[in-house]
């Protein structure tokens, strides 16, 4: 039990009129326990209180996620989570399909909830594709989460210029910020985006520099960082999601393990990013047209006439798994 910042619990209690209840926010999740902040302290080793039916089913403590506001129950032996309040949003990691993975994750893994702003980190020394970026953008736009793309390790100026030009050419309105921990540039600009009382999450692959950025924001070396492997793949540094208060801004930031792909707990709406293709598809002969080999496809016709970029259609298919 530690005396700390309340991570927005007091504001949440006032909003929900829960003054007399023991309310907390999950700030860290390990394998089967949580760290939960209240207005007075942080409780470690908090467990989920399971019902009799849950126990019979062999349920594990994986129902809740970092960012959740929860009600608590204190007993002589332990602190328990009773239930979770309605989430504003929840992000999840897509199941693993890698052949080298011994145990394939059959279900999506929850990453964080109640997020106001997402920083999507793209490193200059890692592989970049617009289709991968668009999958993230579709996900976060669906939840009305403010988005900022961080081009990390921007001291590699030529590659940084390339990434910015590629993204801005397709999405000129997207907020893009260059960051270099080595030169300590871009950190103040990040702080300006961290509004008091809001929760931001850093998303990106291992080795993209997420923990290094957080160290600069916090002003300490709280997170141990590792070098990137020769093949450009990051060494895993952060092994769990955790919320960290940023003293200078009065806001909170969620550090996450490296994420190769993101998913949502509900179907996304592709028209948030591909409205041009969605509009064209209304004139296709078939309502469920995949714009591949179907006859009288208005989308393919637009490509033939030069009215739609073929690469954009290719990325649309990838986002939709076509």
UniProtKB/TrEMBL annotation:
It is found in: Cytoplasm. This is Small ribosomal subunit biogenesis GTPase RsgA. GTP binds at residues 152-155, 204-212. Its EC number is 3.6.1.-. It comes from the Bacteria. Belongs to the TRAFAC class YlqF/YawG GTPase family. RsgA subfamily. Coiled coil: none annotated. Keywords: Cytoplasm, GTP-binding, Hydrolase, Metal-binding, Nucleotide-binding, Ribosome biogenesis, RNA-binding, rRNA-binding, Zinc. Its cofactor is Zn(2+). Gene3D superfamilies: P-loop containing nucleotide triphosphate hydrolases, Probable gtpase engc, domain 3. Monomer. Associates with 30S ribosomal subunit, binds 16S rRNA. Binds 1 zinc ion per subunit. It is an enzyme of class 3 (hydrolase). Zn(2+) binds at residues 284, 289, 291, 297. Residues 113-260 form the EngC GTPase domain. One of several proteins that assist in the late maturation steps of the functional core of the 30S ribosomal subunit. Helps release RbfA from mature subunits. May play a role in the assembly of ribosomal proteins into the subunit. Circularly permuted GTPase that catalyzes slow GTP hydrolysis, GTPase activity is stimulated by the 30S ribosomal subunit. The keyword Nucleotide-binding applies. Residues 104-262 form the CP-type G domain.
């Amino acid at each position: 039990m530690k005396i700390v910042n309340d991570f927005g619990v007091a504001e949440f209690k006032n909003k929900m009129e829960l003054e007399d209840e023991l309310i907390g926010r999950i700030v860290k999740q390990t394998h089967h326990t949580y760290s939960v902040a209240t207005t007075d302290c942080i409780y470690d080793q908090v467990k989920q209180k399971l019902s009799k039916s849950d126990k019979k089913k062999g349920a594990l403590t994986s129902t809740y996620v970092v960012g959740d506001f929860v009600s608590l129950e204190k007993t002589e032996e332990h602190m328990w989570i009773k239930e979770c309040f309605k989430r504003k949003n929840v992000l999840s990691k897509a199941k693993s399909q890698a052949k080298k993975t011994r145990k394939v994750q059959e279900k999506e893994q929850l990453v964080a909830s109640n997020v106001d702003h997402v920083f999507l980190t793209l490193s200059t020394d890692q592989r970049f594709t617009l289709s991968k970026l668009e999958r993230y953008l579709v996900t976060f736009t669906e939840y009305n989460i403010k988005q900022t793309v961080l081009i990390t390790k921007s001291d590699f100026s030529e590659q940084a210029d390339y990434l910015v030009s590629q993204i801005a050419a397709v999405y000129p309105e997207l907020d893009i910020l260059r960051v270099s921990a080595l030169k300590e540039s871009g950190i103040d600009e990040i702080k300006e985006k961290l509004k008091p009382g809001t929760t931001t999450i850093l998303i990106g692959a291992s080795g993209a520099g997420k923990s290094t950025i957080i160290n600069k924001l916090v002003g300490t070396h709280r997170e141990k960082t590792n070098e990137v492997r020769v093949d450009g793949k990051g060494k895993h540094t952060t092994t769990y999601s955790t919320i960290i208060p940023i003293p200078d801004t009065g806001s909170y930031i969620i550090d996450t393990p490296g994420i190769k792909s993101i998913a949502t707990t509900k179907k996304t709406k592709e028209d948030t990013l591909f409205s041009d293709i969605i509009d064209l598809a209304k004139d296709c002969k078939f309502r469920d047209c995949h714009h591949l080999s179907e006859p009288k496809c208005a989308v393919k016709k637009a490509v033939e006439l030069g009215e739609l970029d073929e690469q954009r259609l290719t990325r649309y298919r990838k986002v939709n798994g076509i």
